[in-house]
Amino acid sequence: MYAITIPEPGGPEALVWAEVPDPVPGEGEVLVEVVSSAVNRADLLQRQGFYNPPPGSSPYPGLECAGRIAAIGPGVAGWSVGDEVCALLVGGGYAEKVVVPAGQLLPVPQGIDLATAAALPEVTCTVWSNVFMIAHLRPGETFLVHGGSSGIGTMAIQLAKAVGAKVAVTAGTKEKLDFCAELGADILINYREQDFVEEIRENTAGGGADVILDNMGAKYLNRNVDALAVNGRLAIIGMQGGIKGELNIATLLGKRGAITATTLRARPLAEKAAVVAAVREHVWPLIEGGHVRPIVDRTLPMSDAAQGHRVLEESGHIGKVLLTLP
Rounded to an integer, what distance in angstroms lies between the CA atom of residue 153 and that of residue 166? Predict the structure, then answer.
């Protein structure tokens, strides 16, 4: 088969479409013939040599895919060859074939075409696990998501609105904020021109955000705590603004706040399977009912994955960038 390889870390040009050995499913795994994958920030870090896959997993980038089951390993029940699926991966999505633990498979939702389904696994699992399973966003609460026009952000807006939350977003352009408003965002904050802490306070009568989903990390740490409501929960899922920051513990204590930080990739198989099962139970009906939809900025040939990485690095996109195979 062919896959996107990374012979040496570097810029987008480091991605090489090359022939590699076919993967073989083991106990509890299936082999998926890939139709599409999607570009995630973690893929950019892996390409640069900063986020290697766990030992024993696929060395190729790609944390999600959609395709058809081509073979089934021992101990797998409930799936058949030919089933159309999408999947949360530990890696290997930028390839013609990938092996997936059966617990990380999802059926393609009704009403969503197979290639587009690759836009769903990573964002739905990230948002549902962090915002709902960990931070317990409830109806009537105020939810702030940074990077509202990203793949994560566009899904977070829709899911938060679906459960009856008030949604605030940050983004860097009017076009992106307007799109967030179309998805249901109530409070629109241009982080280049406005202070999100002040805007959140002004729009909540000084109360603050009950839940914040943050992709920036260190850069926003103290300001996020300042923006929290009493009993607020800050969920950190990214490090785009650095890895080390100072935290005002007195402010956090005064808010009786909680900070969590998670990734999906390194979690044990059982934990990922539990997240996937929760997404299938709670999110898939919202998609099939037309209340939530994947947002796709553009589709590129998988062999041109380098261009997909450039698009994410330039941050001009809205939603997901997909990589497809003929």
Answer: 14
pLDDT band at 75; cut points 50, 70, 90: very high
Choose between 56 and 208: higher pLDDT. Answer: 208
Instruction: Read off the pLDDT of each residue in 268-296 and give the average, rounded to a whole number.
Output: 98
The gap between the terminal CA atoms of the chain, to the nearest Å, is 14
The C-alpha atoms of residue 58 and residue 65 are separated, in whole angstroms, by 14
CA distance 63 to 201: 36
CA-to-CA distance for 148 and 155, rounded, in angstroms?
9
Q: Of 88, 28, 83, nearest to 64 (Cα)?
A: 88
Distance CA 118, CA 186 (A): 28
143-154 pLDDT per residue, tens: 999 999 999 999
Are 325 and 96 within 8 A, CB to CB?
yes
- DSSP state, 78? S
Are 163 and 170 within 8 A, CB to CB? no
Q: E strands along the chain, which residues?
A: 2-5, 16-19, 29-38, 64-72, 84-88, 97-101, 105-107, 142-145, 166-171, 187-190, 209-214, 228-236, 258-261, 296-301, 320-324
Residues in the chain: 326
pLDDT tens profile 85-132: 999 999 999 999 999 999 999 999 999 999 999 999 999 999 999 999
Q: Is the pTM of this model over 0.90?
A: yes
- CA–CA distance, 79 with 81 (Å, rounded to integer): 7
